[in-house]
Amino acid sequence: MLNRCQKQYPGLEISLPRIEVSQEVKVLYGNSFSNQEVLNVLDEKVQPQAKGVAIRVDGNTVGYVNNQATADRILAELKDSFGRKGEVGVLSVDGPDQVEQVQFVEKVSTSQVQVPPGIVMGEEKMMTKLRDREGPLLSVKTVKQVTETEKIGHETEIIWDDTTMAGRQEVIVEGKDGKKQVTIERTKVDGQIIEEKVIREDVLENPVTEKIKKGTKESQGKGTGKFIWPVLSPSITSTFGERWGKMHKGIDMTGNRVIMAADNGKVVNTGSRHDYGNYIIMDHMNGFQTVYMHLGKIDTSVGRIVEKGEKIGMMGSTGFSTGVHLHFEIHLNGDLQNPLKYLAQ
């Protein structure tokens, strides 16, 4: 019987319960003695036992394996597999993760037992049972220290300025994010983060506060009566007055192609005509009006209050024009004026 069990369950240490044999004389009438009947009775009555190791979680038996070495190997592999599971990447890691601790959340124990050989599991089957969480729940907790480089967001400071027109703003100082090195103690259960604790922070680069100047000055559009050139670096190509028997109502100029308002004012008309091309008319609310013609692009609209020096369009060659230039007129109380009388020389 023992030999048969050892062949059926290789790798297990099989034992049989102690069988006591006693001699007894009986007289049998008509029955012959049968060894096979005795063996059959022994098969029914005698149950073989195998030496094994029970794995328990919180006192509940999960199963049995053949020896302690197998149990230790299964638990070690389970810790290792869950310890690696669910790792997440970081933007910058300055050093390798330091594993402080890997342990089971539940109480896990093993003990030597004698059990029927048929219920002893193989290593792979026991691993699958624990990993797939059949039966008692078994979780692995890992605690690691990681060092990461993180961004320090910069702040924004608004500087209100009563000399700048409302609605205008200017970046005085560009903002810049800083950097810090952070050491974190990260706790996971079965690969899922359950807690993060900052152990240390070292600032590598301080952030730079962005400073923005915003205007509060309200303009009613009234001009100062003092005009600036409507383009930068102007070059006059045609002056005010009689030209080829006709009155030239303004001056023509080239220069930087950005067209600026010559004084504070209100845009009262924009449009396009065959002779003017694209044009803008501004009323300076003090008797003066200025006209800007042959624009390539209009960058303002009727009703808008603009400040002296504010961009209103781009130089072009639309309408009756022989080249890219600006035709500029000044009117005072409806009468044409020579712009050169009012523009700074």
Automatic annotation (TrEMBL):
GO molecular function, one term: metalloendopeptidase activity
Keyword entries, A-Z: Signal
UniProt domain G5: residue ranges: 138-218
Calcium is among the record's keywords: no
Domain of life the protein comes from: Bacteria
InterPro entries: Cell_wall_metabolism_enzyme, Dup_hybrid_motif, G5_dom, M23ase_b-sheet_dom
Short name of one Pfam family: G5
CDD domains linked: M23_peptidase
The protein's name in its UniProt record: G5 domain-containing protein
